[in-house]
Amino acid sequence: MIELIGVSKKYGRKTVLRNLSLTVEKGHITCLIGINGAGKSTLLKAIMGLTPISGGEIRIDGRPIDRNLYERVAFVPDTLAMPPSMSVAGSLRFMADYYRSWNPARASKLMDFFRLNPSDRISSLSKGNAAKLNLLLGLSLDTDYLLMDEPFSGIDLFNREQIASVFTSDLIEDRGVLLTTHEIADIEHLIDKAVLLDRGEVRRAFWCDEIRLNEGKSVIDVMREVYQA
Amino acid sequence: MKRFAIAAVFAAFIVLVIGIYYVQAAGDRSPRFRLAAVEGDPQEARSIELLGWYRNAPYSENVKVNAEGSQYYDELSLFDRLHGVWSRELTPIDRLIFQYPDFMRANRAADYQDDGLLVRVQTNARFEVGKSRVTHSLKFDLLDKKTRRTRSLRADLPENAGYNGLGILDVQRSGDGLKVAVEYDILRNDGTRGTPEIRVYDIRLDDGSVTGSQVVHYGLQPAEGQEIYLSMARLYDWTLPSDSLVLEAVMTEVRNDGEAESANHFRASVGRSDAVERRLVVYRYDTGDVRSAALPVEPPDAPFSERLYQIGGDALIVKWSAKTAVVQVYGLSDARMKYEKTLTARDMQADSILNINPLPDRLYLLLQTQDRPAVAAFDPAGGQIVFRGLVEADEGAEGTDGNALLRNLDLDSVYMRE
Amino acid sequence: MNGYLKLTLFELNRFWKIYAALIGVTLISQAGGFVYHLRNYMNSVHRQMAVRGFRNYSEYREAFRGGDSFHSFVSFAEPWFSGPVVLCAAAMMVYVLFIWYRDWLGKNTFIYRLLMLPTERLNLFWAKLTAIMAFVLGLIAFQIVLLPVHLWLFRQIIPPELGISENIFDFVRNHRLLQILIPSTFPEFLVSYGIGLTSVTVAFACVLIERSFRLKGVFGAILYAAACGTALLAPNFSDRLYPLEAFWLRLGIGVVLLAVSIALSWLLLKRKITV
């Protein structure tokens, strides 16, 4: 379980995360929802140790963040973080070089599934292909948790459908997934838990099935309640 | 992996090239020389160090040669260079810095030393604006060589109205006090120099009080348009005890030769100063007696160099050119010429005289023979050349022709080894 | 192979094209410029000999005071000799900073990937430091290798009557630029490049300060660099210190600055760096 306990973060005078607590359980897909600037990306980066927090605690399976974290938690950021001159195959080799948890067979399977060309340069990839490669790099690590920052942002419909189909496959199955988005419509049917953020705070966190069963509301209904209140 | 192999080759290339370069550089040595005694006591050769340049076209290297061998400045390690090893055995001040580093730290100067004491003096002038006069004082730093303790003293000199310049000429010890010989100068507002005064002060070592002073009359009275210049005899080590103060006093006539235009178009008056009278002045510290002797005045364009030295118990006037050195030896008890001796390069088996250096008991002449540097030592007490040395190229010097190497060696000064 | 070695290889690999270009420019400019000047000189010698009717080079030398050293021929060929050296030095100085900033540039900020590697973050620091030192020493080694080549070219083109050959070590020791880059003894080499290493670690720490604190970090970095520079220069301000004492003091200060910069970098990479 990924636990955030009373986490806060300031950028200078601006408070981006305010006494925030949430959990991400293994085997479930949790979605962080909020408008731009709500602190979603910052939260993911904080979990991954890419930015320091001003207060609170972050624990992964009960342990604080250390370098071994990266074999257990994979992060798909909102950009494809690879050098532009590197080839697609080169980026796979790079990952294989450093991570024990790299699964080459899965990487190969995903290369075929996403129809990516190994000899393409990173800089020459279309937005859709870059997003797919980005996802591939994260999914090919045998980690317990997977964090994704805006995986559908700026992607056209057909690529979006292809990416969404990954979520229902065995590639995700046992992992704990935390993803952020502001386009909830595409994935409402995929997620297990929703966490609504507003100005750095958690406004509501709920299991989607429960809300549907108990209150007959969809996630978007709850969003309307929270954000337009 | 291929990448690893390439990186390994790159690393090996760096290590090998730089390593080989420095191994070779360490082995690259300039020729070795040695001073050999040809006439006189070989011990004399072991007591001196010759300094100069080895011309290794198109470069020159600083080199020292002595009876054991030679050393090049560039071959000293960084540590040795920083430690001052090169000059440590050369000048008296560098030797003192090495022996008493903490005392010499504040000011790398010294004025007097004996077995127990090391003394340094600084002058201090205060301009009292309201009263438009200058008061002088002396600051002494004293080191007890045995206990290594230092202390400072201040001596306020009784006013010498009218003088605005004060220089230290000499410091000697006398019983439980010091005798300090100073020169007072005055530079007038119109740019002319007044008559300098030499005074010897008696200063108590315990509290710095001035217990007496004496003017040293050097026997010249300037008329209108005449100025007096005083200079001390040159000594190898001015810090050693001496019983005399030896000076040369020159009276010059300052003539205004009208105006001329200088390179940057300023009109200025051009002066010429010609010497009209010269005297050798000897002051004895123990008795306070002053003896002086008239010296001939040489024309300004004379074809030789002239210097006054104090060596041992004598004053020497040496006039020298490339082929001849004329040495006049004066006794310090009476300032009378004892004798005059002419030394020719040929007498010393050399082609030319390059330089003259005083050492505590000898006058050294640096010579050039046909193909190598040479050196001769003159003893004023006996009036003879007592030592001659020749520089030789060491056996096994690289580049077989030792004589050719010697022709590239220019040695121009002599120092005493401790 | 551990993370440090892998990252070092990676850093070496990403710069090799520009590095090869620097080496190529040095080779062409030095050797090419030198040969060009030597050929020109010999052409004018031959012209004069034809005009004056000299039968051999000795006669030319007597008439024209010819007969210059390797050293002076190299000086005549400036700036083709020293130019590339300065260029390489400047390029490396820029790369000391750019080796970090390139990971933050552009839309594919690679620094995310580097910071998420399952290895000690300080290995990023060590790898970049190693790469810089390797590149600089590689250029030095290359220059050393070129020197006997230049001497050989000289001897091939200029006859002995007109050109005095030299020993490489004397040439280096008396060349204004090379004597700084290639000190005369190995201990001095260690001292010089030790200072260089310390300077690079200070620069790295400054970059990390800026990257951790952004605008405030710019001031912090400038302050840190100024403080380190002042500390290193401090022994010069006292005229009471003897040269050897000033040397040991400066060495000690250098070691302290090295340690502080490394420790500071470790702290920033571990706890303060932000993307």
Summarize the structure in short.
Chain A has 9 helices and 9 strands.
Verbal overview:
The complex is a heterotrimer of chains A (229), B (418) and C (275). Chain A is an alpha/beta fold and 229 residues long. Chain A is 34% helix and 26% strand. In chain A, β8 (193-198) and β9 form a beta hairpin. In chain A, α4 (104-114) runs antiparallel to α5 (127-139). The longest helix of chain A has 13 residues, at 127-139. Chain B has a domain at 1-30. In chain B, 14% of the residues lie in helices and 50% in strands. Chain B contains 7 helices and 25 strands. In chain B, the strands form 6 sheets. Chain B has a 5-stranded antiparallel beta sheet with strand order 1-24-23-22-21. With 275 residues, chain C is mainly α. Chain C has helices spanning 3-52, 57-64, 70-76, 82-101, 111-115, 122-157, 168-174, 178-181, 186-233, 243-272, and strands at residues 68-69, 163-164. In chain C, strands 1-2 form a two-stranded parallel sheet. In chain C, α4 (82-101) packs antiparallel against α6 (122-157) and α9 crosses α10. Classes of the chains: A alpha/beta (229), B mainly beta (418), C mainly alpha (275). At the B-C interface, α1 and α3 of B face α1, α6, α7, α9 and α10 of C.
Query: How is the quaternary structure best described?
Result: heterotrimer
Structural class of chain C: mainly alpha
Q: Estimate the strand proportion of chain A.
A: 25-35%
Strand order of the largest sheet of chain C: 1-2
> Helical segment tally of chain C?
10
* First-residue to last-residue Cα separation of chain A: 32 Å
Average pLDDT confidence of chain C is: 92
Give the tags.
heterotrimer, B: 418 residues, mainly beta, 4-stranded antiparallel β-sheet, globular, C: 275 residues, mainly alpha, two-stranded parallel ribbon, 2 strands, elongated
Write the SSE topology.
The complex is a heterotrimer of chains A (about 230), B (about 425) and C (about 280).
Chain A: E1 2-11, E2 14-24, E3 29-33, H1 40-47, E4 55-60, H2 69-72, E5 73-76, H3 88-98, H4 104-114, H5 127-139, E6 145-149, H6 157-167, E7 176-181, H7 184-187, E8 193-198, E9 201-207, H8 208-215, H9 219-227
Parallel strand pairs in A: 3-7, 3-8, 5-6, 6-7
Antiparallel strand pairs in A: 1-2, 1-4, 8-9
Helix pairs in contact in A: 4-5
Chain B: H1 2-27, E1 33-40, H2 42-46, E2 48-56, E3 59-65, E4 70-72, H3 78-82, H4 85-88, H5 92-99, H6 101-105, E5 112-113, E6 117-128, E7 133-144, E8 150-156, E9 165-174, E10 177-185, E11 197-204, E12 210-215, E13 226-232, E14 244-261, E15 267-284, E16 290-295, E17 305-311, E18 314-320, E19 324-331, E20 337-344, E21 352-358, E22 363-368, E23 373-379, E24 384-393, H7 402-407, E25 409-416
Antiparallel strand pairs in B: 1-24, 2-3, 2-25, 3-4, 5-6, 6-7, 7-8, 9-10, 10-11, 11-12, 13-14, 14-15, 15-16, 17-18, 18-19, 19-20, 21-22, 22-23, 23-24
Chain C: H1 3-52, H2 57-64, E1 68-69, H3 70-76, H4 82-101, H5 111-115, H6 122-157, E2 163-164, H7 168-174, H8 178-181, H9 186-233, H10 243-272
Parallel strand pairs in C: 1-2
Helix pairs in contact in C: 1-4, 1-6, 4-6, 4-9, 6-9, 9-10
